[in-house]
Amino acid sequence: MGVEGRDRAKTIDMGAHALSGQLGKTVQRLRKAYNLSLSELAEQSGVAKSIISQIERNETNPTLATIWRLSQALDVSIERVLSAGDEEPFIEKTTRGDTPVLFSDDGKVRLAIFGWIKTVDWLQWYDVHAEPGGVLESDAHQRGSIECLSVIAGEFEVEVAGVLQRARAGETLRYRCDRAHVVRNVGAETAHATMVCILKAAVMD
């Protein structure tokens, strides 16, 4: 489902360009609000001065790791750094019909893709419903990637490299997903969870 092939790549590229545009303005605005020079922000964030300058001029699409370091130096959340300027309020609505849905091989696990196309290269998130006995088998993602499964209802089991762990409503499992992994509904009722996949580009050392 969703955008495929060249169209998908073009859409992602356009989204990244738009993200970079608003990011540059936001970083510059926050840097000036703190009275920081480019050199001072570079020293505090560990991001090269030339990279920060390119970001502010919208000449590069930084990784989430770079955005995270800048957000730490500017003492704001990543969400605020990624948001548009205060003068540009942003609300985007996606209808149920516009939300892509995937199913596991056994047809018992349904994943609604809530992730934003602009962040698909480093951050993906899903709304998961699994019927009793439903199994979602996944191949390894990029090396260093992490997945988080937060259970809303029911009970899930996650298996990674032969290691098993279970979680009930209100609990979260975080696990390396850069190897084959399996998510199962081990309860007697339909289970519900949110799943967030943080790809290699977003994982901090």
Describe this structure in words.
The structure is a single chain. The chain has helices spanning 5-33, 38-45, 49-56, 64-73, 78-82; strands spanning 101-103, 109-113, 123-130, 135-138, 146-153, 155-160, 163-168, 172-176, 181-185, 191-198. The protein has 205 residues and is an alpha+beta fold. It folds into two domains: 5-82, 434 Repressor (Amino-terminal Domain) (Orthogonal Bundle); 96-202, Jelly Rolls (Sandwich), CATH 2.60.120. Helix 1 (5-33) crosses helix 3. The longest helix is centred in the N-terminal third of the chain and has 29 residues, at 5-33.
Mean pLDDT: 81
Note the run of SSEs as H and E: HHHHHEEEEEEEEEE
The domain count comes to: 2
- The CATH topology of the largest domain is Jelly Rolls
CA radius of gyration is 19 Å
CATH secondary-structure class of the largest domain: Mainly Beta
**Share of β-strand residues:** 25-35%
Q: What percentage of residues falls in helices of 4 or more residues?
A: 25-40%
Through-space gap between termini: 33 Å
- What is the number of E strands? 10
Number of helices: 5
Helix/strand-derived class?
alpha+beta
Features:
205 residues; alpha+beta; 434 Repressor (Amino-terminal Domain); Jelly Rolls; six-stranded antiparallel β-sheet; four-stranded antiparallel β-sheet; 10 strands; disordered N terminus
Would you summarize the structure shown here?
The protein contains five helices and ten strands. It is an alpha+beta fold and 205 residues long.
